[in-house]
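To make the argument concrete, we let one protein speak, a sequence paired with a row of structure tokens, as a model reads it:
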Amino acid sequence: MKVLIIGNEDRYRRYMPHADYLNAFDIVYQPRDASLSDLLAAGSDADAIAVDPTVQLPSGLINHMPNLKIIQSEGVGYNGIDIETARKRGIYVCNQKGANAAAVAEQTILLMLALLRQFVLGDRTVRNGGQLAMKERLMIEGIREMADCRVGYIGFGDIAKAAAERLTPFGCQQFYYTPTRKTAAVEAQYAIAYLSQHELVSTCDFIVILCPLNDTTRNMVNASFLNNMKSDAFLINTARGEIVNNQALYDAILSGTIAGAGLDTISPIPVPKDHILFQLPAPYADRLIVSPHIGGVTMRFFKGAHQRNWLNIYKALTGELPDNIVNGLSSVQS
């Protein structure tokens, strides 16, 4: 059974589980940026693909792999995979649903606290000898605690639920919006209340983007969305960069329409040095905090994810139904 891995070879080797069934696999590696011709030269006869979630897998690759039975995303994302082509051919596309929820929830809260406390600016100011001046300024301006904030989630899946659990001890009020309201039992479990998207965006101190990327959410955070936020509110995006319109966010920060933003993900990937959001002039540049899309890439996540990845591939190649199928196949394919 041949497995084509498209991604970082060192990472896959590091987190390779110790399992006897791995001896049945003939594994070949290709880098994330490999060309279509290189991928086909290395793995056109592969039975399975294990793929970095940022990689594009078009129909031109999938349709030239006659033995392919499963495409397994290393993470939660699968936006780059042509899932419809895979479905038509009876190829499972699977992901790691919920596997990094705790990790991304931690990153989400980190960005929120860093914005409230102006942490990045504070670190730089102290290093430059300006400690007392900044401390005096912040005491006059006022520092909000999380307990004084209303947190609103756009999307309430695994990550938002993990964040809500972790924020409950902080004492903040929490709200969510999804197209379909959750049950009363779910709302009670997470001590969270439902609001319409308009009301949530216009009343919460943190607007946390945790919805999937699709045709309805792409560029959802646009000028109209941001203009509806409070001027002292912050935007947090730990979902997908394409959900936020970069020009609109630049304009909102520069105009003081919103207080700032914390982003773990920015479109495009990789983020260029001359990205528009990095062109904000002082002091507005300090209202933006970014991290290198590391919210979900903890050691704990990778250890668990790679164990499940390989077991899922083994299931699919030995006639069992794999877990977390995202392209609508619900039975064992012949």
Notes: The chain has two domains: 2-99+298-317, 101-290. Residues 94 and 325 are 4 Å apart (CA to CA).
